[in-house]
Amino acid sequence: MSTGKHESYWTETSNFSRFEKLQEDVNTEVCVVGGGIAGITSAYLLTKKGYKVTLIEALKLGHGTTGYTTAKLSAQHELIYDQLISKFGKETAKVHYQAAMETIDFVQETEKELHADFQFNREPAYVFTDEEKHIRQIEKEWDAYEKLGIPGALLDDIPLPVSAQKAVRMDQQAQFHPLLFLQAMTKYITANGGTIYEDTRAETINEVGKATVKLKDGGSVTADHIVIATHFPFYDFKGAYFARLDMARSYIVSGKSPLAYPGGMYISIDSPSRSVRSAKDKDGETLWLLGGEGHRPGKGKHMKEHYSNLRNWGRSEFEMEEFDYNWSSEDFISLDSLFYIGRITDQTKNIYVATAFRKWGMSGGITAAKEITSLIVTGESLYQNIYDPARNDGAKGISTLAKNLVEVSKELVSGKLEKTTKSIDELEPGEAGKIRNKGKLIGVYKDNDGTLHKIDTTCTHMGCEVHWNDAETTWDCPCHGSRFRASGEVIEGPAVKDLKKAD
Question: Is residue 370 within 8 Å of residue 376, measured between CB atoms?
Fold first, then answer.
């Protein structure tokens, strides 16, 4: 039985142009940092408005979180509308729903405008439970739908061939291929005066005079406006984002089933959660995308088990035997569950941030691009400032804030006292472990050629201890989600510096 490639279906079936690395000093009107959905859509919209835009990406375009999503383009962000009404009132909940619905129309209109194929199609979306204790939550969410006038239904079953006691359906949602969407916009940007650089990691921002993004390997970008669309803001101490973001890692497997796909997109609220949608492969056959197994990054010992659990579920529920792809992604959540989109602080007028999309980065990223474009062009919010990062979110998210602070404090202490695992001689090719050298923890990875890669396991962001992820062969930080290659290079932040090499 095939377990599939360790790759995203989206990344394998897209073909971005490649761009050079920036290592000199340049000036522009808008510098966008981050080549995912929020960054590229921002650059696209601002280019359309006539701005001179420079976009920089630390790795390759589309190969961050956007390339490893389920790509549901939905306003049904799990069970959120009852929560939003309770915390903020009907008006805020309605604005959030309408903002997400506008992103669906935006993608459909952009597909036509750019004469492209994003594999866009409208689908109903379902949240369901098979547990008695969660039925009331589903019913309360439907009550919220009715209060807000959201089209859908309260159901006792779902079309998917799994057991469900109660579900809520939201109509006129959508799914698409996110990287085909970004590809088309990238072509437009470069054809209309925009400049793009890859392998160009931002390290910090100098706010004296015009704001200047300083690059890790030399060079800089000075701009009238800077948009930070790096998933976790690399400039996170401004606005204390390191304390205001919770995080989760989740997994996806995909393959074919002998069953006919019933249409729709699905997510359960039971534990462990399960997510299902479909896509078409290059031969036009239906792929089933199964997601779930969420956990805090850097927690747990055997990450490969999460993929195994999803494959076993596919075998038992959908008769799936062969799997084509496996991938995972990391998501960030704000203290009060609303996105952080806007000026990075209320005192900073020309630096903008887009983050905390709560596992719904496709609609969240496009909403962010539209909001930031409006703030730059007109100075006004499109969404009544409900996503303003400078809002007082601590009171409404005090339990999340307390949990984050406890987790970080615990890791800063317990990580340093961590027991070592295997000695270097015991490591098999493809394995990693930790040893102590003069009291200091050293991470050692033996690659498939038998070469040893030794790193200091202290995260370069705030000093927590990174842990080995055997599913992705990465070192992951449980405090703020930074990830590093087996040999120590930064994959994603907030860390901007590589792990130190060790003897």
Answer: no
